[in-house]
Amino acid sequence: GFSWFILAPLVPTLGKVFGVSLSAILLLVSAYGYTMVVLGLLAGWISAKFTVKSALYSASIITVVGLIGRALSPSYVTFLITGLIAATAYPLAMAPVGTVSESIFKERSHTVIGVSVGSLFLGMAFGAFFGPLLFRALGLSGTQWFIVVLSIAAALWIGFGIKDYPTFYKGRSLRGSFKP
After folding, report:
1. What's the Cα-to-Cα distance from 49 to each of 8, 42, 113, rounded to whole Å?
2. How far is 83 from 18, CA to CA, in rounded Å?
3. What is the pLDDT of residue 142?
């Protein structure tokens, strides 16, 4: 949420930098939510079909690649496309939260899920709040690279933090999961 909602207060600057309309820039901010909706169910299927580890590793890699692409983007279209690549990672990261919380915190799994989802909203709030401060201190490019550094740090934390996580969740059946 942080890397996406940091764009909200930068809407006027992004419009000037890319020479596009306000509507086009608002699409950049809205695209995160659209990506979440479209890929949410698919991400659940992927995390159930493969392993929790693979979903989290994939989410980390996709985030870093997308945000590096966004930081290097010379145009609106590449900024949008690479931003969408980065946004696809969040559903992959959130999909296995239930499995992880139930396996580690059986008695408090709902609390852990709530905290995980709440962290998304906290990240959004921090992004919108700190975006102007970072922009003033680092400029647009520096702000984008700051986000990349944070995502690399998170990817390393995930990479080392889940290396011992059990892999026996592979191949769960989804039969009947999507029936009303």
Report:
1. 35, 10, 20
2. 14
3. 92
